[in-house]
Write a structure and sequence with these properties.
Radius of gyration of chain A: 26 Å
Order of helices and strands of chain B: HEEHEEEHHHH
Structural class of chain A: alpha+beta
Largest sheet of chain B: 5 strands, mixed
Structural class of chain B: alpha+beta
Radius of gyration of chain B: 17 Å
Number of strands of chain B: 5
Strand order of the largest sheet of chain A: 3-5-1-12-9-10-11
Largest interface: A-B, 61 and 54 residues
CATH class of one domain in chain A: Alpha Beta
Oligomer: heterodimer
Number of domains of chain B: 2
CATH topology of one domain in chain A: Aldehyde Oxidoreductase, domain 4
Number of helices of chain A: 22
Distance between the termini of chain B: 45 Å
Shape of chain A: globular
CATH class of the largest domain in chain B: Alpha Beta
Shape of chain B: globular
Number of strands of chain A: 28
CATH topology of the largest domain in chain B: Ubiquitin-like (UB roll)
Helix content of chain B: 25-40%
Largest sheet of chain A: 7 strands, mixed
Strand content of chain B: 5-15%
CATH architecture of one domain in chain A: 2-Layer Sandwich
Strand content of chain A: 15-25%
CATH architecture of the largest domain in chain B: Roll
C-alpha cells in the first residue's frame, strides 16, 4: 500500500480532527475520578519508611466499623505481580526493598480519615544494609537483592574483532556518560476503581494495557484471568508510566474490593504519584569508539548499565532496547557490548517513552559530537561518513532493505538550520561576556513494535465487526491515552472499507469485549495494530465480494445478509524477520523509524542559564495517517526530551527522592518552550497500513544529545551527563581541570 | 468527601434560611448556597457537591493549572481557593464558558491530546481574551504559563489561541 497517496484516500493522510476533542475541550470527558460509583470506598496505601529492612511485626490499631484492612496475608494466591519475573510482591510481607514499598492497605467511606488511621499502624523494622547505587549493586560487598549477582538481566555480544580494530584505530575516544531519573508527569495521576464482579473482580482505570492487568493479577487473586475484567477509562496521559504500574495499584484496589465486597477507588495525589511510581532508568555508559584516518568508525566497546531499582518490572526489555540503540545509526563491523540492568534499594524503574533508547542515544550521539570536535571535522559531515544506508547491516546484522529516511532527515535539518555555517561560527565566537550561541545535532532511530521476539510472544489479535445497521466496530485492546489512537484507527478502517468515518466506531478497551491486541506501547499501535485492523477490513471486503478500488463494500454488504460480519486477524511475524535473543543477532525490529534533530541555544556566560531558541526535527515515520497528530507527537516528545536534558532534575538520598511535586520537579511551561519546526518524512513501509511505521517514542530520543551538543558548541567544553543544569556547567567551567579540557 | 460529611447538617442548597454556611456564590450564573464547609477547597466543592468535573486536580498546589476557573472573571487555581473566600463572588467553570470559537480552535489545531489539562487551558485563554482581545504571541504564552501540558509541547495550544483571536476579528 506504499502508493496510498496516489489513490487519494478520503481520511488517510488528512489531519482529521480527533474524535474525542470536542468532549475534552468542554470538560465533558470522564476520567476515572469523574465517574460515580455507588457505595464507593476510598483506598489508602501504607508504605515502607525504610530503604531495606526486615519487617519484624506490625501493630494494627482497633479499626472503626466500615474500614477494611489488608496485608500480604489476605492475598488469596501467590504474592507477586506477574510480568516477566515473579520478584515484585503485591504487598511486602517479610522484607522491604525501597522507601515507599506497599505493605498494607486501608479502605473506608471517608478517605480523609485514612491517613490518621494509617499513622496508627506501627511497623517494626530491622534495618538491613541497603544498596544505594549501580556501583554498590555490582560491588559484591552487600547481600544481593536479586539473584546471586544483583543483575536482573544482561546481554553481551561481540561482533568482529573490536580489540584488534581499536588497536589499529587512528583515533580512540573513551568516555563515561550518565543520565538521571525522569518522571513521566502525566497530568492525570494514577487511579483505578475495583469492584466485585460476577465470579471475580472488575477494574476500571487510567491505563495503557488492560490485558497486562488481567494477566498480572490472576496468580495473586487466584482467579481465572477471564474473571478479572479490565476496562480503560479516559486516560490523562501515560508516556509509559501507565504501562506496568497500574497492575500494582489495580491489585491493591482489587484486594480491598474483594475483602470489603464494595467498590474501592485508589487514586494517588501528585505527591504520592511522584514519590512511588516508576521512573525512567538512570544509566551509565562507558564507551570507547575508534576511527580510521578517513573518519570511519572502526569499533565500539560499550558497557551499558541501567539502574532497575528494587524490582525487575520491565527492566529486561528496557535493557534490550537500550542495548540495540547503543551503537546508534552507524555502520560498524567491530562491536563489543555488555548491557546490564541491576537491582538497587531504590524505587523500581519502569517504562517511559523511549524505553532505554534515550539513555543509549545520549551516549553514542554525544560521543559522535565529541569525536567530531576532536577530529576537527563538523558533526554533520562525520555522521554522513558513517550513517546506515539501504543495503547496510545494523549492529545485530539486520539488512536494511527499505524505508530508511535517515540521510534525508540529516540533510534537511542541517540545511534548514544552516548547521555547518553556524557550527563553525559559534565555535569561533568571541568569549567576551556577550551571550553565547550554540547549535547541536543528533541522528537517531526507533525500532517500531516490540523488540526481538516480543510480537511473536504477544500474538496480537484484532477484529472488526460490520453490520448494515450500525457500521463498522473496531475491537482492539489498544487504548487512546492522548496520542489519538481512536482517530487513527477510524481513519484506517474508513478508508479501507470506503465508509464515512462516522460509520466506524472503536469499542471501549474492555478485556471481556475485545481481543488482546497487545499493550499500548513500543510505538506499535499504528503499525502493528493498525495493520491488523487494515487486514481485517480487507477480509471483510473479501467476505462480501467487494474490492478496495471499487468502493462497493456498503452495497455488497447489504446484499450479503443482515447479520454481523466479523473478521479477525492475528499478528504473524513475517517469515523473513528472524531474531535470536540468546545470541542477540538478527532482525531486532520489523522496521525502524529514523530521525535527526538540531537544537539551537543561547547561553548567559555569567549565570550559564541556557535558553533554547529552536528545535528543528525531521522524522521519517512512513505514511503519516494523520499529520496533525504526528506533529503533536513530535512536538510533545521533543519537549519531553528537552526537559529530560535540561531542567528535569530528580535525585535521591539513601533511596528517598528529593523531589515530590511540580514545585521541585520542574517540567517545561510555555515560557520554556522554544520555536519548533517539525518535518515529516514519509519513507513508506511495505508492510505497514498505508505504509505507516511508528512515531510515539522517537521524538524524545535524540533531543538530549542535540541539546548538550549545542551547549558544548557555545562554551567549548564537553559534558557527559544529563540533566545538564547551569550548576553542572558552572562546576565544569570553573573546575581546575577545565583548562586542559577547554576547547581552544 | 468533605461534602459527604456536611450532608447531614443541612437541608436544601437552594433554601437560604436553613443553610449552614452563610456563603452565597454564583457558579456559572446560578446562585448557590453550599452545603460544604467554608474551609473546603473551591475545587472540591465544584467537583463533589456540584459534580462539575470538567475542573481537574493535577497537583493540588497551584502549579499545574488543571483546576483553573474564573473568579470574578480572573483565572485562578481552584485548589488554592477556599469556599469561604468566594462569598458574594462569581465563579465560572469550563462548563459555564461559552466560547465556540475558542473550542473550535482547540479542536482544529490539534491542541488537545490526553485532554486532562485542556479545560484549564481554555479557562486561562478565555480570561486572557476577555481582558485582551488581541494578544501578541508572547502575551498568550505568558497567560498560559501557569498551565502545564505534558503531551503537546504547547505549540498547537498557542496556535489555537491565535486562531481564536483571528476568527473573532
Amino acid at each position: 500500500m506504499s502508493d496510498s497517496a496516489k489513490h487519494g484516500f478520503k481520511y488517510v493522510g488528512q489531519s482529521v480532527v480527533r474524535v474525542d476533542a470536542a468532549d475534552k475541550v468542554r470538560g465533558a470527558a470522564k476520567y476515572i475520578n469523574d465517574i460515580e460509583f455507588p457505595g464507593l470506598l476510598i483506598g489508602y496505601t501504607i508504605r515502607s519508611s525504610r530503604q531495606r529492612a526486615r519487617i519484624v511485626r506490625m501493630h494494627i490499631p482497633a479499626l472503626p466499623p466500615g474500614v477494611t484492612f489488608v496485608t500480604a496475608d489476605d492475598i488469596p494466591g501467590e504474592n507477586y505481580v506477574a510480568l516477566f519475573k515473579k520478584d515484585q510482591p503485591l504487598l511486602a510481607k517479610d522484607v522491604v526493598n525501597y522507601i515507599g514499598e506497599p505493605i498494607a492497605l486501608l479502605a473506608g467511606p471517608d478517605g480523609d480519615l485514612l491517613p490518621e488511621l494509617a499513622a496508627q499502624v506501627r511497623i517494626e523494622y530491622e534495618d538491613l544494609p541497603a544498596i544505594s547505587s549501580m556501583e554498590e549493586a555490582l560491588s559484591d560487598q552487600l547481600p544481593p537483592i536479586y539473584g546471586a549477582d544483583n543483575v536482573f538481566k544482561s546481554y553481551a555480544y561481540v561482533k568482529g574483532e573490536p580489540d584488534a580494530a581499536l588497536a589499529q584505530s587512528e583515533f580512540i575516544l573513551e568516555e563515561t556518560f550518565r543520565t538521571g531519573y525522569q518522571e513521566q508527569a502525566y497530568l492525570e495521576t494514577q487511579g483505578v476503581v475495583a469492584f466485585p464482579y460476577r465470579h471475580g473482580v472488575k477494574i476500571v482505570g487510567s491505563m495503557q494495557c488492560p490485558f497486562y492487568i488481567q494477566k498480572g493479577l490472576a496468580p495473586a487473586l487466584k482467579l481465572d484471568p477471564h474473571d478479572i475484567v479490565v476496562e480503560q477509562a479516559v486516560t490523562g496521559g501515560a508516556f509509559g508510566g501507565k504501562e506496568e504500574f497500574p497492575s500494582l495499584i489495580a491489585g491493591h484496589a482489587a484486594l480491598l474490593a474483594l475483602k470489603s465486597g464494595r467498590p474501592v477507588k485508589i487514586t494517588y495525589d501528585r505527591h504520592e504519584d511522584i514519590s512511588v511510581t516508576t521512573k525512567r532508568h538512570p544509566s551509565q555508559s562507558m564507551r570507547r569508539i575508534g576511527f580510521d584516518k578517513n573518519f570511519h568508525i572502526t569499533a565500539m566497546d560499550i558497557d551499558f548499565i541501567l539502574n532497575g531499582g528494587a524490582h525487575s518490572t520491565l527492566s529486561e526489555v528496557v535493557l534490550a532496547r537500550g542495548a540495540l540503540s547503543a551503537p546508534g545509526v552507524y555502520r560498524c563491523d567491530n562491536i563489543r557490548l555488555l548491557a546490564r540492568a541491576v537491582a538497587t534499594d531504590q524505587l523500581p524503574s519502569g517504562a517511559f517513552r523511549g524505553f532505554g533508547a534515550p539513555q543509549a542515544f545520549f551516549g553514542i550521539e554525544s560521543q559522535i559530537n565529541h569525536a567530531a570536535y576532536r577530529l576537527k571535522i563538523d558533526p554533520y559531515t562525520l555522521r554522513k561518513k558513517n550513517i546506515l544506508r539501504l543495503g547496510n547491516r545494523t549492529a545485530t546484522g539486520q539488512l536494511l532493505k527499505e524505508s530508511l529516511g535517515l540521510e534525508k532527515a540529516l540533510d534537511i535539518v542541517a540545511e534548514r538550520t544552516d548547521f555547518m555555517k553556524k557550527y563553525r561560527q559559534y565555535q569561533n565566537q568571541p568569549k567576551n561576556g556577550q551571550k553565547l550561541k550554540g547549535i547541536g545535532l543528533a541522528a537517531f532511530f526507533h525500532g517500531c513494535g516490540f523488540t526481538g521476539k516480543g510480537e511473536e510472544l504477544i500474538k496480537a489479535t484484532a477484529s472488526v465487526d460490520y453490520s448494515n445497521e450500525t457500521g463498522a466496530l473496531i475491537k482492539i485492546a489498544t487504548v487512546d491515552m492522548g496520542q489519538g489512537m481512536n482517530t487513527v484507527m477510524r481513519q484506517i478502517a474508513a478508508d479501507a472499507l470506503a465508509l464515512p468515518m462516522e460509520r466506524v466506531k472503536v469499542n471501549v478497551p474492555n478485556t471481556a469485549e475485545v481481543p488482546n491486541s497487545g499493550p499500548t506501547v513500543a510505538s506499535r499501535t499504528t503499525m502493528i495494530v493498525g495493520g491488523l485492523v487494515f487486514q481485517c477490513c480487507n477480509d471483510l471486503l473479501g467476505q462480501v465480494g467487494a474490492s478496495a478500488g471499487k468502493h462497493d463494500f456498503v452495497e455488497k454488504a447489504k446484499l450479503a445478509n443482515d447479520n454481523i460480519l466479523t473478521a479477525t486477524r492475528d499478528y504473524r511475524v513475517p517469515d523473513d524477520v528472524v531474531w535470536d535473543d540468546d545470541k542477540f543477532i538478527g532482525d531486532a525490529y520489523p522496521i525502524y523509524s529514523w530521525a535527526a534533530a538540531v537544537v539551537e541555544v543561547v547561553i548567559d556566560p555569567l549565570t550559564f542559564e541556557v535558553t533554547v531558541e529552536k528545535i528543528t526535527a525531521a522524522h521519517d515515520i512512513g505514511k503519516a495517517i494523520n499529520p496533525v497528530l504526528v506533529e503533536g507527537q513530535i512536538e510533545g516528545g521533543s519537549l519531553q526530551g528537552l526537559g529530560y536534558a535540561s531542567i528535569e532534575v530528580m535525585t535521591e538520598t539513601n533511596g528517598r527522592l528529593n523531589q515530590a511535586s511540580f514545585t521541585d520537579y520542574i517540567i517545561p511551561t510555555t515560557l520554556d518552550t522554544p520555536e519548533m519546526e517539525t518535518i515529516i518524512l514519509e519513507e513508506t513501509y511495505s508492510r505497514g497500513p498505508f505504509g505507516a511505521k511508528g512515531v510515539g517514542e522517537q521524538p524524545l530520543v535524540g533531543i538530549p544529545p542535540a541539546y548538550v551538543g549545542a551547549v558544548e558548541n557555545a562554551l567549548g567544553v564537553e559534558f557527559h551527563e544529563i540533566p545538564l543544569t547551569p550548576e553542572i556547567i558552572h562546576r565544569k567551567i570553573n573546575s581546575p581541570q577545565s583548562a586542559q579540557r577547554t576547547r581552544r | 468527601m468533605k461534602a459527604d460529611k456536611m450532608s447531614n447538617n443541612t437541608n436544601s442548597a437552594t433554601s437560604a434560611s436553613s443553610a449552614v454556611s452563610e456563603i452565597v456564590l454564583t457558579v456559572n450564573g446560578i446562585s448557590r448556597l453550599p452545603k460544604a464547609s467554608p474551609s473546603t477547597r473551591l475545587l472540591d466543592y465544584l467537583r463533589e457537591e456540584l459534580k462539575l468535573t470538567g475542573t481537574k486536580e493535577g497537583c493540588g498546589e497551584g502549579e499545574c493549572g488543571a483546576c483553573m476557573v474564573l473568579l470574578d472573571g480572573k483565572a485562578v487555581n481552584s485548589c488554592l481557593v477556599l469556599l469561604g473566600q468566594c462569598n458574594g463572588r462569581e465563579v465560572t467553570t469550563i462548563e459555564g464558558i461559552d466560547a465556540p470559537e475558542l473550542f473550535r480552535a482547540f479542536e482544529e489545531t490539534g491542541a488537545v491530546q490526553c485532554g486532562f489539562c485542556t479545560p484549564g487551558f481554555v479557562v486561562s485563554a478565555y480570561a486572557l481574551l476577555q481582558k485582551n482581545p488581541h494578544p501578541a504571541t508572547v502575551e498568550i504564552k505568558e497567560a498560559l504559563s501557569g498551565n502545564l501540558c505534558r503531551c503537546t509541547g504547547y505549540k498547537k495550544i498557542v496556535e489555537a489561541v491565535e486562531m481564536a483571536v483571528k476568527s473573532k476579528a
